[in-house]
Specification:
alpha/beta, 12 strands, binds ligand PBG, TIM Barrel, eight-stranded parallel beta barrel, two-stranded antiparallel ribbon
């Protein structure tokens, strides 16, 4: 019976552990659940309005009242964390991003409203100046076009404090300025916000995959690119140094972003540092899957779950994904089968 090409007898047959769904479930090495997911959402001013985002089919900018109506469903799906991003009208932007720490701005308002109705939902806010900055950069731009590190960090501290006062659970600096995690930690602690957590976008690459996000927020840089602060996709050791310094400065969770093209970085950070790693499956990763599925080239549901499982397997404890709601529905149905 045995082919002469195989050792006889064949003692190891790895397919035995894959022979049916029950055995596969017993030996499965990675689990993915709704509670691993963070749901990023795009908010805009006004009432009862929603605008589809052209480059992110299925995602819209929404007013806070509409989003609040959706939150119960989101919570009941088992999603525990959301990340609101604001669309800021052009007339509220300036070169110092002063609207970023306005206590009556869209984000502080939405935090207070959400916390009033859903105190258990974790709110993770982005700390960077780009949506508020007339130059479209994450930092303050000098007259000669330089991104000013230390002046930016001062504004980021005010922004983080403003969100903490409104009730944010996590502030998430995504700007890649040097020293911002430590400065934000000190600013929060000085005002006794010692239990506001910091999730640092530590290894954030200068990525073309952010294109649809900038379309969603109308926040693309007016001039130049983000390469003097976001990381070079060629670099691995530098990511480890970024993570190391953010941990030393007090980060509670470190993030790698984007996720899919940077699984090696997620894996290495996870194996080298005793801290939870977050991964951000960014807008371009979302839109690639959605548009390929719309064309019938791939199966949407299984590709979504496989992409997230890959990120989890690489070592992410939590994943920011625009698929959070859909993935939670898919995972819940799977469990019932
Ligand atoms: C803001 C910020 C960006 C993203 C998250 N926070 C854009 C950027 O850095 O240009 C991108 C997220 C996405 O593409 O989904 N600093």
């Amino acid at each position: 019976m045995n082919s002469s090409l195989y050792p006889n007898p064949l003692l190891t047959r790895l397919r035995r552990n894959r022979k049916n769904a029950s055995v596969r479930a017993l030996v499965s090495e990675t689990t993915l659940s709704a509670s691993d997911l963070v749901y990023p959402i795009f908010l805009m001013e006004g009432n009862n309005t929603e605008e589809p985002i052209h480059s992110m089919p299925g995602v819209s900018r929404k007013t806070v009242d509409l989003f609040l109506q959706e939150l119960k469903e989101i919570r009941d799906l088992g999603i525990r964390a959301i990340a609101p991003f604001p669309v800021v009208p052009e007339n509220k932007k300036d070169s110092k991003a002063t609207a970023s720490y306005d206590p009556n701005g869209l984000i502080p308002q939405c935090i207070r409203q959400i916390k009033a109705d859903f105190p258990e939902i974790l709110i993770m806010t982005d700390i960077a100046l780009d949506p508020f900055n007339s130059d479209g950069h994450d930092g303050i731009v000098s007259p000669t076009g330089e991104i000013l590190n230390d002046q930016t960090v001062d504004v980021l501290c005010q922004m983080a404090l403003c969100h903490a006062k409104a009730g944010a659970d996590f502030v998430c600096p995504s700007d890649m300025m040097d020293g911002r995690v430590g400065a934000i930690r000190m600013a929060l602690d000085q005002e006794e916000y010692t239990s506001t957590s910091i999730m640092a976008y530590s290894a954030k690459y200068a990525s073309a995959f952010y294109g649809p996000f900038r379309d969603a927020l109308h926040s693309a840089p007016k001039a130049g690119d983000k390469k003097t602060y976001q990381m070079d996709p060629a670099n691995r050791l530098e990511a480890l140094r970024e993570v190391e310094s953010d941990i030393a400065e007090g980060a509670d969770i470190v993030m790698v972003k984007p996720a899919g093209p940077y699984l090696d970085i997620i894996s290495e950070v996870h194996s080298r540092f005793p801290i939870p790693v977050a991964a951000y499956q960014v807008s371009g990763e979302y839109s690639m899957i959605v548009s390929a599925a719309q064309n019938g080239f791939i199966d949407r549901s299984s590709t979504i779950l496989e992409s997230l499982m890959g990120i989890k397997r690489a070592g992410a404890s939590l994943i920011w994904t625009y698929f959070a709601k859909e993935a939670a529905m898919l995972l819940n149905n799977k469990g019932n089968q």
